[in-house]
């Protein structure tokens, strides 16, 4: 693994066996444009991955994590190392304020398996990011998020 990988922290936020996902903006210059993915983002200099996660979730959906997230793992490709955390979503989705992205929704395990999900805001079916889908499939297989 290269030291030049960009560190990011992402959240698997779960509620009643479903998973909160962000439909990323459909901007060609960003990673996974127009794909469903996790909330999260870059780890800033001097910040721990957990601190970055909490900051990013607050910035992106106005949600303060009420339960300490659990580290699920680290996943990397040729550009990014993802610090993946899980935590229950303890408020209803209508209490969240989407401040980054095109849409958000709670996806069921069968939606994850299909690899795509309908967005009412985009008015179309959009794909899940292959990396995030694989991570969620592993999380579901580990019985993650099914204990709340």
Explain what this protein looks like in three dimensions.
The protein is α+β, with helices and mostly antiparallel strands. It has one domain: Alpha-Beta Complex (Nucleoside Triphosphate Pyrophosphohydrolase), CATH 3.90.79.10. Helix content is about 20%, strand content about 35%. The chain is built from 3 helices and 9 strands, in the order E-E-E-E-H-E-E-E-H-E-E-H. It has helices spanning about 50-60, 110-115, 130-140; strands spanning about 5-15, 20-25, 35, 40, 70-75, 80-90, 105, 115-120, 125. Strands 1, 2, 3, 4, 5, 6 and 7 form a 7-stranded mixed beta sheet that branches. It has a two-stranded antiparallel sheet with strand order 8-9. The longest helix is centred in the middle third of the chain and has 13 residues, at about 50-60. The protein is globular. The model has no long low-confidence stretch (mean pLDDT about 95).
| Strand proportion | 25-35%
What's the tally of helices?
3
Rg estimate, integer Å? 14 Å
Low-confidence stretches: none
Q: What's the architecture in CATH terms?
A: Alpha-Beta Complex
Q: How many β-strands, per DSSP?
A: 9
Q: Name the overall outline.
A: globular
CATH homology superfamily name: Nucleoside Triphosphate Pyrophosphohydrolase
Structural class computed from helices and strand pairing? alpha+beta
Listing every helix as H and every strand as E from the N terminus to the C terminus, the arrangement reads EEEEHEEEHEEH
Percent helix, as a range, is 10-25%
């Amino acid at each position: 693994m290269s030291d030049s990988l960009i560190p990011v922290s992402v959240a698997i936020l779960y509620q009643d066996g479903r998973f909160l996902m962000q439909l990323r903006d459909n901007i060609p210059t960003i990673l996974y444009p127009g794909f469903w993915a996790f909330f999260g983002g870059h780890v800033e200099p001097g910040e721990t991955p957990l601190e970055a996660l909490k900051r990013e979730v607050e910035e992106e959906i106005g949600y303060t994590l009420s339960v300490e997230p659990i580290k699920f793992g680290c996943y990397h490709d040729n550009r990014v190392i993802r610090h993946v955390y899980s935590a229950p979503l303890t408020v209803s989705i209508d209490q969240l304020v989407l401040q980054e992205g095109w849409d958000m929704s709670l996806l069921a395990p069968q939606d994850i398996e299909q690899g795509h999900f309908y967005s009412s805001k985009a008015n179309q079916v959009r794909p899940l990011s292959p990396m995030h889908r694989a991570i969620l499939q592993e999380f579901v297989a580990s019985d993650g998020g099914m204990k709340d």
